[in-house]
Amino acid sequence: MKSNLIVLLICAFTGLSFTSERVLYLLYPSHFPAPTYNLTDNPLLQESIDLGQMLFYDPILSKDYSISCASCHSPYNAFAHTDHDLSHGINDSIGTRNAPALFNLAWQTSFMWDGAVNHLDMQSLAPLSHPSEMGENIKDVVEKLSNTMRYRTAFYNAWADSLPTGERFLKSITQFQLTLISATAKYDRVMAGNDVLSPQEAMGYALFKDHCGSCHTEPLFSSYGFSKNGLPVDTTLDDYGRYRVTKNDEDSLLFKIPSLRNLSYTFPYMHDGRYLKLNEVLNHYNILEAGMIDDSALSRPMNLSSKDKVDLISFLMTLNDTAFVLNPQNKFPQSLQMRSKN
Amino acid sequence: MLGSLCSVSAQSGAIVSTDKDSTQDIQFRFQPQINSEPLKLGRSYYISGLEDSVSIEKLKFYIAELTLYNAEMTHVHISPATFLIDMEDSASLQRSCAIPKGVSYQKLSFSLGLDSAIQCSGAKGGELDPTRGMYWSWQSGYINLKLEGTSNSCPARNHLIQYHIGGFQSPYNTRQSLVFEYDHSPSILITMDLNKLLTEKNITENFQIMSPNQKAMDFAKNLPDLFRIGP
């Protein structure tokens, strides 16, 4: 309590102001396109990134203080939810979709498997309010944060005002998530000219470009558009993807194309987590019959041999970004570990 | 935080004035009514067309781009550009603004609901803050109008009538534009006649609309008809 007050006083004297020197920028390699998130609407500051990270890891966001964002998006799994095909929320309730990995969100223009969310800022509202995820609502969360001294201090540091609001809350979580950039895989080193693909990986790369690259577009390994990929509907879930949002028949069974970075960490795969292994994924693509999907790379049979599959998987392994997954900066923040009574 | 204090925003083709002496104050009052009486939340009203009583527990809606025009259709935007009318906050019903004097304003327009630019550009504060309870969580988009109440005629659980009308993407763009003649009065009463909504069909069949869909569209299209200038 006392130390927090001192922090506030020091801030008042040093006149914490939003000078341009404090504004941070996203770092990404030259083979990446420019991010699509408009940072002028939400200038990055270390203090708001830190606040966002605190919020991301804090179960205070759920109704019964049991679930944080990280419960379903673990840093050790490139922020996906490993072991669970469908996500698990408060009171052990089970959701209807697999929690996707979180990285390179600054390049995405729609969110969720069906694109129901059109802006990263607004995404947090979905898990927060979902009765089988965090079971809360933004008004009550903001109220809880207002009553917590360490958050009042953190909001003051980040927003020059100790009052949490919905906007500041959402934008802070966004800021933390924008910093989750996966751009240090072997593939990226190769693109930068600092490494080379092995002959097997190179053969896999050629197969990838031929069969996968039109949807899982380089260098992010997703166009972040929507498409069918031939999965039959799981009749226990009846999830028709994009159709749920647009109610347009043509959008039935379209799902957002996921990135293929970090696949070793993000299993199980697909919107409902139906496949545990990459081999199963490739078998799925390999047995698609001609004509099952029009107008895409999947309309012609792939005829992948067992060797092709091994080669392809060896290339996919070059997209694993161990440095990103192990980055201590993205993990459970100090500020929560050291927290006192309030 | 709500109510009063607004200013004229400069726009191309707009009438702009910064000089204090050359501006006049103008007042807007939004007044929802039932049975020609000012609406009171939680009060039971007998609706003759329905042969039953209805009580309204919640009424909130967004007004955007409130604008005055002169004969040449030169215009003055009244700011803030968007504001939330909330029956639980009586100050929100009354808005005042300084506008350039000596211009013969003839028309007044506003839209009920928010445009897609606002809906697609991330988190907003103030009257657009999601804590105001006007943002859907499971799918991006603001609720343009929220009306909740009860009536025994409503077959829903606990007789709850719930209209959360929103949607900004074609074919379910629920935002409505309204234009009125304006008679130079410095205080403008904008009446909203709720009897036109509390029809038998709406209470007994369409009593729950909670997402952007055809029902929401049909409902929204009827909303402009509720509004008039004057008592």
Description:
- The complex is a heterodimer of chains A (342) and B (231).
- Helices cover 37% and strands 1% of the residues of chain A.
- By secondary structure, chain A is an all-alpha fold.
- Chain A has two domains: 6-182, Cytochrome c-like domain (Cytochrome Bc1 Complex, Chain D, domain 2, Orthogonal Bundle), CATH 1.10.760.10; 186-323, Cytochrome c-like domain (Cytochrome Bc1 Complex, Chain D, domain 2), CATH 1.10.760.10.
- In chain A, strands 1-2 form a two-stranded antiparallel sheet.
- The radius of gyration of chain A is 21 Å and the shape is globular.
- Chain B has one domain (5-223).
- Chain B has 231 residues and is mainly beta.
- Chain B contains three helices and 15 strands.
- In chain B, 36% of the residues are buried.
- Chain B is globular and about 55 Å long.
- In chain B, the strands form two sheets. In chain B, strands 1, 4, 5, 6, 7, 9, 10, 11, 12 and 14 form a ten-stranded mixed sheet that branches. In chain B, strands 2, 3, 8, 13 and 15 form a five-stranded mixed sheet that branches.
- At the A-B interface, helix 4, helix 5, helix 6 and helix 8 of A face loops of B.
SSE inventory with pairings:
The complex is a heterodimer of chains A (342) and B (231).
Chain A: H1 2-14, H2 46-56, H3 69-72, H4 120-123, H5 125-129, H6 138-146, H7 149-159, H8 166-178, H9 186-191, H10 199-211, E1 226-227, H11 243-246, E2 255-256, H12 263-266, H13 278-287, H14 306-317, H15 322-326, H16 334-337
Antiparallel strand pairs in A: 1-2
Chain B: E1 8-9, E2 23-34, E3 37-38, E4 44-47, E5 52-70, E6 75-78, E7 82-86, E8 94-100, E9 105-112, H1 116-119, E10 143-150, E11 160-166, E12 176-181, E13 187-193, H2 200-204, E14 208-209, H3 214-221, E15 227-229
Parallel strand pairs in B: 2-13, 11-14
Antiparallel strand pairs in B: 1-6, 2-3, 2-8, 4-5, 5-6, 5-7, 5-9, 5-10, 9-12, 10-11, 13-15
